[in-house]
Specification:
Layout: E1 7-13, E2 16-24, E3 65-70, E4 73-77, H1 79-87, E5 92-100, E6 109-117, H2 122-135, E7 137-145, E8 148-156, E9 161-166, H3 187-199, H4 213-226, H5 249-258, H6 275-297
Parallel strand pairs: 1-5
Antiparallel strand pairs: 1-2, 2-6, 3-4, 5-7, 6-9, 7-8, 8-9
């Protein structure tokens, strides 16, 4: 299925304009969700909006959007006015500076998008990509989108350009508020810690090598519940994972190095592609089990 662009924009690169299309770089995989049901009959519950003043249920057709400019004082915007606010968005990405890739702390990274060349944009697009690759730098730019101005990073990847939305300073909390205590460590402790890190180091992160094991565990428990089995709570583990203090740091490091193995990688996601189908079949069999038995008895 061909990717669909969410916007057509132009990157302002000096006096050069680069027509590009914007594509979502990520997709949300549905998390395991539980529905709210009526305890008495097991039926789904429906969400309703209640007017705080009149205490009546309000239909969506009777809802409007407003901005609170003072306590309980709102100015109401009609749909056409809201649309006009969004249409004022500029369809340009204005580069304001270039800097090394490492100059932007990843803590400021927000949502990522792919940029592809639009009509007549192939050559300037390739020029910017090659220039960024050759200099080892990224671009810092401004992007007005849906009523907000974003600071964005444009960086080059193997197959093209990536647009990375950035958070503003007031959107990121400061670790200084935690008042983290700095404790001195000995040279021997540091040496053992470095050795442990070296033993468990890999060349890089390959996302295809990992799967959501917690999600699979929960789905397996759901299968047991569908099959009529009870779900039991696993006992809490003891030790450092549960917050217990490590008394002898040196001894713990030595034991860790002695038992260290090559990093265990989960099986690639592709190998587990049939798991959802198997789980679905299990649930279907579990749900159909009593019915089959009834027909056989009949």
């Amino acid at each position: 299925m061909a990717a669909r662009s969410i916007a057509s924009l132009s990157i302002s690169f000096g006096l050069v304009s680069i027509p590009v299309k914007v594509f979502s770089a990520t997709e949300s995989k549905a998390a395991i969700g539980f529905n709210l049901l009526h305890k008495g009959c097991g039926s789904r519950l429906r969400q309703q909006y209640i007017c705080q003043r009149e205490g009546v249920v309000v239909d969506r057709a009777d809802m409007v959007k407003g901005y609170e400019f003072e306590k309980d004082q709102y100015v109401i915007f009609e749909p056409d006015e809201l649309k006009a606010l969004e249409e004022a968005t500029q369809h340009t990405i204005d580069i304001v500076a270039f800097m090394p890739l490492a100059a932007i702390d990843p803590i400021y990274y927000d949502k990522a998008y792919f940029l592809g060349p639009d009509k007549r944009g192939g050559k300037p697009y390739s020029l910017l990509a090659e220039a960024l690759r050759a200099t080892g730098k990224c671009a810092l730019a401004k992007w007005n989108w849906k009523g907000k101005q974003y600071m964005v990073q444009i960086r080059v990847a193997e197959d093209g350009l990536i647009l990375q939305q950035l958070l503003y300073a007031d959107e990121v909390r400061s670790m200084a508020d935690l008042h983290v205590e700095t404790v001195a460590v000995s040279g021997a402790e540091l040496s053992l810690a470095e050795q442990l890190i070296e033993q468990n180091s890999v060349e890089g992160y390959d996302p295809a090598e990992y799967t959501d094991e917690e999600k699979q565990r929960i789905l397996a428990q759901i299968d047991k519940k569908i099959a009529g089995q009870d779900i039991t709570v696993a006992p809490e583990t003891s030790g450092a994972a549960s917050g217990a203090e490590v008394i002898d740091l040196m001894e713990a490091l030595r034991k860790s190095i002695g038992s260290a193995k090559a990093p265990a990688l989960a099986k690639p996601a592709m190998k587990d592609a049939k798991a959802p189908a198997r789980r679905g079949a299990k649930r279907a069999e579990a749900a159909a089990g009593p019915a089959k038995k009834t027909r056989k008895q009949a």
